[in-house]
Prior knowledge:
CATH architecture of the domain at 70-250 in chain B: Orthogonal Bundle
Number of strands of chain A: 14
CATH architecture of the largest domain in chain A: 3-Layer(aba) Sandwich
Distance between the termini of chain A: 88 Å
Mean pLDDT of chain A: 91
Low-confidence stretches of chain B: none
Oligomer: heterodimer
Mean pLDDT of chain B: 92
CATH superfamily of the largest domain in chain A: Periplasmic binding protein-like II
CATH superfamily of the domain at 70-250 in chain B: MetI-like
Radius of gyration of chain A: 27 Å
Shape of chain B: flat
CATH class of the largest domain in chain A: Alpha Beta
Radius of gyration of chain B: 23 Å
Helix content of chain B: over 70%
Number of strands of chain B: 0
Strand content of chain B: under 5%
Number of helices of chain A: 17
CATH topology of the largest domain in chain A: D-Maltodextrin-Binding Protein, domain 2
Largest sheet of chain A: 6 strands, mixed
Amino acid sequence: xxxxxxxxxxxxxxxxxxxxxxxxxxxxxxxxxxxxxxxxxxxxxxxxxxxxxxxxxxxxxxxxxxxxxxxxxxxxxxxxxxxxxxxxxxxxxxxxxxxxxxxxxxxxxxxxxxxxxxxxxxxxxxxxxxxxxxxxxxxxxxxxxxxxxxxxxxxxxxxxxxxxxxxxxxxxxxxxxxxxxxxxxxxxxxxxxxxxxxxxxxxxxxxxxxxxxxxxxxxxxxxxxxxxxxxxxxxxxxxxxxxxxxxxxxxxxxxxxxxxxxxxxxxxxxxxxxxxxxxxxxxxxxxxxxxxxxxxxxxxxxxxxxxxxxxxxxxxxxxxxxxxxxxxxxxxxxxxxxxxxxxxxxxxxxxxxxxxxxxxxxxxxxxxxxxxxxxxxxxxxxxxxxxxxxxxxxxxxxxxxxxxxxxxxxxxxxxx
Amino acid sequence: xxxxxxxxxxxxxxxxxxxxxxxxxxxxxxxxxxxxxxxxxxxxxxxxxxxxxxxxxxxxxxxxxxxxxxxxxxxxxxxxxxxxxxxxxxxxxxxxxxxxxxxxxxxxxxxxxxxxxxxxxxxxxxxxxxxxxxxxxxxxxxxxxxxxxxxxxxxxxxxxxxxxxxxxxxxxxxxxxxxxxxxxxxxxxxxxxxxxxxxxxxxxxxxxxxxxxxxxxxxxxxxxxxxxxxxxxxxxxxxxxxxxxxxxxxxxxxxxxxxxxxxxxxxxxxxxxxxxxxxxxxxxxxxxxxxxxxx
Lengths: 416, 295
């Protein structure tokens, strides 16, 4: 009996000894760990694939300059729109810097005190006032313009135009003749391709007509509320667009990237899109054969700006400030535009940074007034409903125009 | 029942009750509370509800009354889903369950039909986009083959056709569920009942109406309840296809609630829609449970 007790005691002691040794080993391992790594910033953006690779090149340069590493997380449009405000309102800044293209969304967050003023982090004299005004409130500026997707006009395949004896129009009458000629070419299903998706390709095309037929001032007035969608000027633009839609000039909307291929293979003649299409296949592989012409006689064009914002709740304020400063500067923007498809807001970026296709866009954009994207500037609920109404208008142009325009005006008011 | 007998079940129920209170009851009560608040958290009574009913996307019966095509507003669209989708899903589920009951390889066919339920609804939505696509869609290809090429179009791109296209498309997705429930129900009916009826000279049709249908009542109530709740809270498929468009023609309540809350950040109106949705789903569910328990 006593022997058993002694054996039991020995086992217990052995167990306790093993536990002590294990605890000591774990403690030693923990103490021997190297100190925590340097601060790593997290950046959210909408960019994936090639755009992400381009952006990461710029971020690598930032790391090289400052020693601060950056983790880039690609979000979808819905994820960014929905989750970021929720995170920020909960007092959580998972991202130290967020890149977003919606000025109204940015100002909404700023009004709620969720974003930091970044006006001291950039040289505002190097950046167009148009881009800064829409993200400013009082003296504060809540976003730094990083890159611009210019919406210069209608893209087409040059050899297709040459083969069919077509030329880029310079007047609106010539434009209408071109549309008629395109429709008569065998194999062409519609003169103009229409992009689908969330609705932005249709709103971009519509805005080209607003600016082209009504002038850039009409676009600015519709944003500010000095003009109404139910007003005569806006109504005339939509009436003209409706006539073209009724005549079957535009295709039924379909996936906007697939439509690029169809423009290239001659299913459609022309396609209103932003400068970024030159980075997408098949355009990207055939830049020598791709051209664009602006909306005839237009005095303006939209530039959709990607802004860098900094949540007020970020725990890495100093490092995030450095990143905002870098992104607003010429060095980062030069790296970004060198990859093609985008323009730099910073005036210090030299023309030599652009490829030939982008340079044409830059040179055109210098000849007209650059105005903000209408739906990006007004925000929701207008934006969603604008897209939605246009989707219906595109396939049913005989719909009651008065009702549609009144709906847009009501939605504009609801967004203020 | 002594105290010990009462306490033990309560002890085991406590974690569930706690979690339900925290994650279901509290959010529901809070949502109802928020639906009465304005932008600055001030009490505004029924103002949010009025605002919701004032929106064409939610309540637009004029087009329906005038015999025009959608949009009719989310509330009416949800009603149309129930009116069309529920009987069709029940009918096809029952028919398939009966037809495949005694067929060799029926289990394999059932598995194929049930695939619609197994795939995520988002994927189902993407598949439906392809089905209805003018160029790549199987529906349009079928129309071309049978000589109706003039009717081909991208069915989800038009306000006139999208709601019907979505409803019929989701019948395919949901039929798998009702078929499986009915199959289980059929297995529970004693074979002796059919044999006795057969000996008594009852026709196949009479056996179906007098035995199969009444004996499947519990299964029918389950299918109706689940289908109704799914139809009321439908979101993902509608979102992935046209985000409620074009022109609001496929807008439904859950989608509108999402847009109000997370895109427009109007939490008051979003909560008002959520409250109405809760009342509707709870009302339907409570009624169906009552019917089941009563029987």
